[in-house]
């Protein structure tokens, strides 16, 4: 290499959004969710995963004929910022969208999309996962948005659905590596893991005093990761925010009903 040549390497920045929208229509403004006013961010890719989109028969028929309202909303917001929708996949109430800055488009190859229903013994898509497999600058990337079973007592079922989704992501007849051999796996969604043992009063007080570390020890996903070697391979960001389930609707009040 010529000693006068300057090698410039910039890390690509990906913003991942997951949101159970509970059949609601897009709100007027999602600037905070998309970090549009954060001048310190220089984002290259948006990955948006929604759960519980309106999947009534009339809504599904309309969305088949036209772009669904959420996809249209995100495109309207992100297109003026030079983002282009590069892929999407939907299964009933689950939707996964990928937007990238236009200059990255020549380096993105969509390899496959896949839907894995796990509701009603694998026949119904109210629960399960939707996936997009791509090559990004030569790296194999898997992006998975999932919705796992709810309720405190169904922790084993959540883990079974996780395993089922993972098991279905291999492509024998295509030139795509085993999902666990991908360079990057982004797995997110409404996983429905809960906080065990602690009473509601203790949880509320911990949230009020921002003592989130007291709740980590009884987080079902954290417990599962301590016992499951495969789950330990996934890295979760620091839990510096209150539990996301469940707040009173349209409020910042935690579970008063």
TrEMBL record:
Pfam families cross-referenced by the UniProt entry: Exo_endo_phos2
Superkingdom, natural source: Eukaryota
Assigned EC number: 3.1.3.36
Annotated Inositol polyphosphate-related phosphatase domain residues: 10-257
Matching SUPFAM superfamilies: DNase I-like
InterPro entries, A to Z: Endo/exonu/phosph_ase_sf (IPR036691), IP5 (IPR046985), IPPc (IPR000300)
Top-rank EC class of the record's enzyme: hydrolase
Protein name: phosphoinositide 5-phosphatase
Organism of derivation: Pontoporia blainvillei (Franciscana)
């Amino acid at each position: 290499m010529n000693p006068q040549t300057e090698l410039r390497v910039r890390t690509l920045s990906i913003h991942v959004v997951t949101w159970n929208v509970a059949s609601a229509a897009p709100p007027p403004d999602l600037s905070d969710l998309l970090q549009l006013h954060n001048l310190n961010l220089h984002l290259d890719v948006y990955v948006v995963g929604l759960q519980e989109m309106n999947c009534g028969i009339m809504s599904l028929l309309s969305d088949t004929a036209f772009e669904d309202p959420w996809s249209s909303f995100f495109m309207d917001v992100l297109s003026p910022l030079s983002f282009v929708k590069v892929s999407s996949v939907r299964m009933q109430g689950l939707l996964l969208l990928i937007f990238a800055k236009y200059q990255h488009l020549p380096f993105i190859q969509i390899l496959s999309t896949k839907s894995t229903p796990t509701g009603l013994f694998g026949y119904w898509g109210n629960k399960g996962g939707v996936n997009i497999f791509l090559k990004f600058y030569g790296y194999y990337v898997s992006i998975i948005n999932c919705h796992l079973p709810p309720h405190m007592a169904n922790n084993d079922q959540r883990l079974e659905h996780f395993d089922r989704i993972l098991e279905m992501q291999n492509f024998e007849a295509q030139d795509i590596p085993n999902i666990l051999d991908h360079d990057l796996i982004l797995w997110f969604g409404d996983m429905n893991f809960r906080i065990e043992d602690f009473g509601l009063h203790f949880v509320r007080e911990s949230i009020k005093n921002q003592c989130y570390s007291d709740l980590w020890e009884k987080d079902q996903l954290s417990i599962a990761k301590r016992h499951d070697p495969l789950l330990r391979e996934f890295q979760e960001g620091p839990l510096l925010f209150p539990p996301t389930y469940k707040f009173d609707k349209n409020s910042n009040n935690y579970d008063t009903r």
